[in-house]
Amino acid sequence: MPSSVDLAANYAESGVAEVLDQLDRELIGLTPVKTRIREIAALLLVDQARQQLELASTAPSLHMSFTGNPGTGKTTVAQRMSQILHRLGYLRKGHVVTATRDDLVGQYVGHTAPKTKEMLKRAQGGVLFIDEAYYLYKPDNERDYGAEAIEILLQEMENRRTEVVVIFAGYKDRMDSFYSSNPGLSSRVAHHLDFPDYSNADLMAIAGLLLNAQQYRFSAEAEQAFAEYITLRRQLPFFANARSIRNAIDRARLRQANRLFARMAEALTKDDLITIEAPDILASRVFTGQVEGHHLMASGG
Ligand SMILES: Nc1ncnc2c1ncn2[C@@H]1O[C@H](COP(=O)(O)OP(=O)(O)OP(=O)(O)O)[C@@H](O)[C@H]1O
């Protein structure tokens, strides 16, 4: 048995540093979330080091709760978390399987257990991400099978803790009451992470990242228009944080393409092709005050 361990070497070997750096580069804000991910990585690396020195080691329970409004990065962070846990040797595969109530709960007697077990099986070696988890529990309906799904999840979370990590996600207030109705569940969730709404500056920075990744940019006027867009958009229904920004940029690209198409006869420069101009932003319903596009809004647009 070695008399000491080289934590730095273990860290380098795991390849976790790259995922953590990527997390820092690609995700704006979310400082408390990033800090917690680093802490979990440290915990697992120290646990590995303890194993090397033959000290007592128990694989920690890593089931989690992600609370926050739509588009605050919960799904994205779940994916990164799964990769990190894979690199640290905790999870065998590092993928994410997303499930909602309908994937877990059956409509007839005897249908729920096989459904829930099937989802757990698919998530084996990775993360089972249960979106809007509170829909599993329907207090008004005694004969609802959601309770059965929760029961099975609880058992498997305990018995297969190193085989699958379960992440429960949803709006903060609703998750809080879900946990208070299901205390057994709450106590088996080791990490509760909250994803706050992004500030306007954060959303602007997210827009910058998204544009950059797709080799687009705002002209100075478009940048200003987009700042106004953000202020107006967040006051409208179905605002979905970063997802609304992603959708807004997709539509701005569409308008830019149409604008360029109308100039088909001319030669277009690289600059023409990468620049989103103010009119591409200002044509949005958010400025014109039209509400017919309500269905678009419903998708977080
Ligand atoms: N901090 C961030 N920095 C950069 N991009 C982000 C950030 N947060 C979210 N995004 C982007 O916004 C989009 C929506 O994020 P994501 O799907 O992770 O949110 P969510 O909280 O899971 O929302 P929902 O529960 O409504 O699906 C994704 O395209 C993601 O890449």
UniProtKB/TrEMBL annotation:
Gene3D superfamilies, per database record: 1.10.8.60, P-loop containing nucleotide triphosphate hydrolases
Top-rank lineage group of the source organism: Bacteria
One Pfam match: AAA
CDD domains: AAA
An annotated Gene Ontology molecular function: ATP binding
Keyword Nucleotide-binding appears in the UniProt entry: yes
Xref: InterPro entries: AAA+_ATPase, AAA_lid_6, ATPase_AAA_core, CbxX/CfqX_mono, CbxX/CfxQ, CbxX/CfxQ_RuBisCO_ESX, P-loop_NTPase
Domain AAA+ ATPase as annotated: residue spans: 60-199
This protein's UniProt keywords: ATP-binding, Nucleotide-binding
NCBIfam families assigned: cbbX_cfxQ
PANTHER family xref list: AAA-TYPE ATPASE FAMILY PROTEIN / ANKYRIN REPEAT FAMILY PROTEIN (PTHR43392), AAA-TYPE ATPASE FAMILY PROTEIN _ ANKYRIN REPEAT FAMILY PROTEIN (PTHR43392:SF2)
Family per record: Belongs to the CbxX/CfxQ family.
Protein name: Probable RuBisCo-expression protein CbbX
Species assigned in the record: Parasynechococcus marenigrum (strain WH8102)
